[in-house]
Amino acid sequence: MKIYVREIASLTLAMTITMLLSLNWLKEFVEIPKAVSPEKLGQLLSLHTVEVEKVEPQADKYKKVVVGKILEIKPHPKADKLKLALVDVGAEKLEVVCGAPNIEVGQLVPVALVGAALANGAEIKPAEIRGVKSNGMLCAEDELGLGSDHAGIVILGQPPLPPLVRGVKAGQPLADYLKLNDVVFEVDNKSITHRADLWSHYGMARDISAFLDTKFKPVKLPPPTPLVRGEKISVKVEDFKLCPRYLAVGLTGIKVAASPEWLKARLSAAGMRPINNIVDATNYVMLELGQPLHAFDRNFIDKIIVRRAKAGETIETLDGQKRQLEPEMLVIANGERAVAVAGVMGGANSEINPDTSAIIIESANFNFDSVRKTAQTLALRTESSMRFEKGLDPNLAELGLKRAVELILKICPGARLAGNLVDEKQTPLIPLLKGDGRGLGPIDFSLAWLNQRVGAEFSAKQVKQILEKLGFGVREKAGKFSVTIPSWRAVRDISLAEDVMEEVARIYGFNKITSVMPKAAVATPFLNQEKILERKIKNILSLGARMTEAYNYSFLKSGGAEAIKLVNPLSSDLAFLRTSLLAGLLENIKTNQAHEECIQLYEIGNIFLNRAGENNLPFQEKRLGLVLAAAEGHDLFRELKGVIEYLLKSLDLPVVFESAESGADIFVDGKKIGQALELEKAPARSLGIKKPAAMAEISLPALFSLIKNQPAKVYREPPKYPAAVRDLAFVINEKILYNNIVQLIKNFSDLISQVELFDVYQGDKLGEGKKSLAFHVIYQADRTLTNQAVDELQEKLIKHLEKELGAKIRDF
């Protein structure tokens, strides 16, 4: 029995936040002028296409890492598992403490000198290990970013490094030995999340050719090699909605081995660890063209079925994890079981291994929503799933497969095709653009529209050139454009004239467009007078009356006949909308009564009643609620009346309290705006309130209406002659309205300038249905009034009231 150590391709590693681009790789598809340095190219990419986080020569990855030759090895004097290695690094000989079991005298090894920053994040500093100074570090695979192995030191000439060549000497930079002559661009993935075509060197090169206005070199594949006869691959797609296209081809004569150095160098530059020639070829095509591929061992595949997962089905993926699949997930299966999670990761039961001699290469187009949901559900986002979930061009699957076949035939001697290409598709594919400009679309717009929207003056020739460089089909006549969309931009990217406009603007350069401030008339801000009143009330109550503002839920556990029940309450305790603010404020008293001797609270908020209001909706009104609570001995009702009087007088409103059955009604200018009452002991006990309490609720719309209708304040010169004031208290029928009484008094004589109510009384002494009103009557004239004249006028007023209202002077 043979035991294989599994190595997972970088294709299956966890999601990265950046994508690495190789400058040498880009140059295979686009001409980059010598005058455009790598740093300049990075700036231009950021201005036109993507966010470039960093431009770094590949050699910088191994700054202060050199080739060292081990001259001597001896035991550490104070540690059995450690050794002291004397290493020649060219300019000097260093003693380095090392615990690796695989070092020998005469070996050439990577040595990180003091000051080096390694790929794993370690910074090399002078160190003392068990009493012995160590001047540097011999490096393992993971420390150099060459793999995940930490079992031993990397030895030059042994994998994963290339074979030794002549001329290698101690002190030589490791980057020179590895022939690292590339420049790597680090691109923020978030900046290309809407551009599936940019997840490859090929797509990025197309954009570079557009903004540099240089030649783009399309992929050219040689004529296909004549196929040998072989068993036809059986492929069945059960759900074309989730898999619009599935291609597969078999190859035989495979010998799994290490990839050639040029291929490994390309993968390493793009941040992907080489595995073997077959896996590396599929990863190479993904990084080059943007099409993820997967290779199956032919011995484990009798047929291919693209289907949804079965209930309870599981799969062990290439990372060694057993995963529970769900019925909405798409899988690739053989006759017996799932062998891959479509678009996400392959299964361990069909992976490439050292004994693999025949393979099947899969290249497909999967539904982007399905891949993303599957990856998120499995918590397994991979390089493959990140590309599929962006919405790949269905035509790319064929190009990617042909490129992979070409590459494997090139790097794997003896490999040959073992049958015809299988191409299962049912839905119409996006047509490729041809010489006549045929493609998806068209999108029509005018040059004048584009110029006006962008704020620049483009010529028709300039617009046509930019769009054709990006692969669009363009027809133009007399400033009218008809543009067809290339297949690689049509899935989730370009659909509107505004999208095409953005392409022209970004390739031209947003930084070249002159910024012009828009011309707009500045209107006077709208002043919400009701909000201003609310703020004024809060300031009066919080600062002047020293009350505390409360904020309560608009929901109650239960309600009466007028309460509105919620269809989707937050909980069963919050099932009804409140019909009064007082329930919440009383609950606040209950919560705080043990901690506070005196409680003074107010709240402004909406109440809701199950009766028709505006637009036939349930009645809704904003109200002000007030509560006072204190120990026995406080006249809380009187104190509450004082607070209300203070509030309304601060708003320049006259207030009158009229006795009601459960307290007192609050009137302003004869209009009832609310009610004040004292909490009785029985209800207080049922609510769990142990302190005496008084409460009031006032309608804010009514209050606002009164304030809004107040006459504007104007300066009035003080009278030259003194006023005369007489008090007048009389008993009348309680049904006579306050406004009628005041108006009758004012209209009696031109000398009466003002009437002020200062007391209302109802009681047993007056008799049933009677009330007593007491007024200050102010007499004013353009001369000094004598007491006799005022008294005579007062007597006449009393007789007038007796006649008109049946009023009787109160004499007690």
Draw up the topology in text:
Elements: E1 18-22, H1 23-26, H2 38-48, E2 52-57, E3 65-76, E4 79-88, E5 93-98, E6 108-112, E7 127-129, E8 132-134, E9 137-138, H3 141-144, H4 174-177, E10 183-188, H5 201-212, E11 235-237, E12 245-252, H6 261-269, H7 277-289, E13 294-297, E14 304-308, E15 314-316, E16 322-324, E17 330-333, E18 338-341, E19 345-346, E20 358-365, H8 368-377, H9 383-388, H10 394-411, E21 416-417, E22 422-425, E23 440-446, H11 447-454, H12 460-469, E24 473-477, E25 480-485, H13 497-508, H14 529-544, E26 548-549, E27 555-556, E28 576-577, H15 582-592, E29 599-612, E30 618-629, H16 636-650, E31 656-660, E32 663-668, E33 671-678, H17 681-687, E34 693-699, H18 700-708, E35 724-733, H19 738-748, E36 752-761, E37 770-779, H20 787-805, E38 808-809
Parallel strand pairs: 11-14, 26-29
Antiparallel strand pairs: 1-10, 2-10, 3-4, 3-6, 4-5, 6-9, 7-8, 12-20, 12-21, 12-22, 13-20, 14-17, 15-16, 17-18, 18-19, 23-25, 24-25, 27-28, 29-30, 30-34, 31-32, 32-33, 33-34, 35-37, 35-38, 36-37
